[in-house]
Design goal:
The complex is a heterodimer of chains A (68) and B (410). Chain A is α+β, with helices and mostly antiparallel strands and 68 residues long. Chain A has two helices and four strands. Chain A has a single domain, classed as Alpha-Beta Plaits, CATH 3.30.70. Helices cover 21% and strands 24% of the residues of chain A. In chain B, helix 8 runs antiparallel to helix 12, helix 9 packs across helix 10 and helix 12 packs across helix 14. The longest helix of chain B is centred in the middle third of the chain and has 32 residues. In chain B, strand 10 and strand 11 form a beta hairpin. Chain B has a domain of 274 residues: Cytochrome p450 (Orthogonal Bundle), CATH 1.10.630. The chains are: A alpha+beta (68), B alpha+beta (410). Chains A and B meet through helix 1 of A and helix 17 of B.
């Protein structure tokens, strides 16, 4: 079985485009300023594709999906 | 059109013409392929063209500043907040403005925007024809802005006149004055209008943006009158013209591309992806200015400290190095477009704009799924911001008694 993935958010890079929570609302949420917040400390396996889709669409490169 | 000058690696580009605005893609394609830094015809301003370089500049306010001498060119008396100031001051203002323009906030006014859109379509749907700019693309964002800001909707015509006077003073009919003078006068009238609204909301708060601005705690103090005016001026200019232009560009694209139009009418759940593609491919805000704070070398070109620089969002958004085939593709897996900019100045109104565009297209396609540019007519695009100033559309009018979207016309 492959290793579990996790999402890393660099909050200092997020400026609130909101592409992640538009495209993958099951993985990414928004704080009061509209910046990204991660909804899961542990990424459930069935959300890995959604996590990747959200991360790939961040223009600031603030999100990375990597092996935990 | 651009003129290659391979020896010096310099392209001259005409960035302010109606011909270019109507068909910018060939110019953009040539620039991203051949010329990372072009120069504008006339002033010779350096123009950065590739995705990677434009993104890097947008994210680097220390080298590419938003504070510039030309900042007062749009009828303003002071720089607009927060667009024309740099971090760290800029970031402090965004902290109090971002919550008010978050996606979550915008969801609260979605119903209102939908009602505006339906009301506009009701007025012309049965005629089977309209001039899209004046009938829909201008009044929708303008009504939404007035409601959001707390201004009476009866002021719509006056605000459209003020906006056009600032953005396109040369296009005013029967007004031979110098454009700069027109802008100053219109600017003064806009300040006056918001000045009055500040007093009204201080006396009697409501649930609108002006009330937020007069009440918000800005690091332990209220915003000053000048700060509120400088923020309001930006919301006014940003909120009206850009959404109007994107609506026009999107609907003109759909009029010319029946395949996509039918796909979206049959699958409205694909409209959000289409909106992102229109923003990217059409790039209605074709470029944004910055000032170099130090000498910068890009490829063979040197940009000098203090020099004005244009970041060409349109070419960056159609750069094959980032997007592969840059044509409109709603299935695109990665769309990191820069239509709303990037970095600290990422468009404050982007969530409002996205919502307005999505709802406008949903409502339009539900009622008018088949439409085309009127035979023999040619849409006219304005230079600068790509507003489609003239977009005559025709469609098969609904049969009498079937005008309502849900059969409720009777």
């Amino acid at each position: 079985m492959s290793a579990r993935l996790r999402v890393r958010l660099d909050a200092s890079l997020c400026v609130g485009h909101g592409r992640c929570y538009e495209l993958a609302p099951e993985v990414y949420g928004e704080d009061v300023e509209g910046h990204c917040r991660l909804l899961h400390a542990e990424l459930p396996r069935e959300l890995e594709d959604a996590a990747r889709r959200g991360a790939a669409n961040c223009p600031e490169g603030a999100l990375e999906v990597e092996e935990g | 059109m651009s003129r290659p000058d391979a020896e010096k690696g310099r392209h001259r580009v005409q960035l302010f013409s109606a011909e270019y605005a109507a068909n910018p893609h060939p110019v953009w394609q040539e620039l991203v392929e051949r010329c990372p830094v072009a120069h504008s015809a006339g002033a010779g301003t350096p123009v950065i063209t590739r995705y990677e370089d434009v993104l890097a500049a947008l994210r680097d306010p220390e080298r590419f500043s938003s504070e510039m001498e030309g900042a007062l060119a749009l009828g303003t008396q002071r720089p607009m907040i927060p667009q024309q100031i740099d971090p760290p001051a800029q970031t402090r203002y965004r902290k109090i403005l971002d919550p008010h323009f978050s996606r979550r906030r915008m969801q609260q006014i979605e119903g209102d925007v939908r009602a505006h859109a339906r009301g506009l379509i009701d007025a012309f749907c049965e005629r089977g024809a309209c001039e899209f700019d004046s009938a829909f693309a201008v009044p929708l964002p303008c009504s939404v802005f007035l409601t959001l800001m707390g201004l009476p909707r009866e002021e719509l015509a006056r605000f459209v006149e003020l906006k056009d006077g600032i953005i396109r003073p040369e296009a005013r009919e029967n007004d031979p004055r110098d454009p700069a003078e027109i802008r100053r006068e219109m600017g003064a009238r806009i300040y006056q209008c918001f000045d009055r609204l500040i007093d009204e909301r201080r006396a009697e708060p409501r649930d609108d943006t002006m009330t937020h601005l007069v009440q918000v705690d800005f690091e332990g103090r209220p915003l000053t009158r000048e700060e509120i005016l400088d923020i309001s001026f930006l919301l006014f200019l940003g909120g009206l013209d850009t959404v109007t232009a994107t609506l026009g560009c999107s609907v003109a694209y759909l009029a010319r591309n029946p395949g996509l139009r039918r796909e979206l009418a049959a699958h409205p759940e694909r409209i959000p992806a289409a909106v992102e593609e229109f923003l990217r491919h059409e790039s209605p805000v074709m470029s944004v200015p910055r000032v170099a704070k130090e000498d910068v070398t890009l490829g063979d070109s040197r940009i000098h400290e203090g020099e004005l620089v244009m970041l060409l969002l349109g070419s960056a958004n159609n750069d094959p190095a980032e997007f592969g085939d840059p044509s409109v593709q709603c299935q695109r897996e990665r769309n990191r477009h820069l239509a709303f900019g990037a970095g600290p100045h990422r468009c404050l109104g982007s969530h409002l704009a996205r919502m307005e565009l999505r709802i406008a297209l949903e409502e339009w396609l539900a009622r008018i799924p088949e439409f085309a540019i009127a035979p023999g007519e040619t849409p006219i695009y304005s230079p600068g911001i790509r507003e489609v100033r003239y977009l005559p559309l025709v469609w098969p009018p609904p049969a009498p008694g079937q005008a309502g979207r849900d059969g409720s016309a009777a």
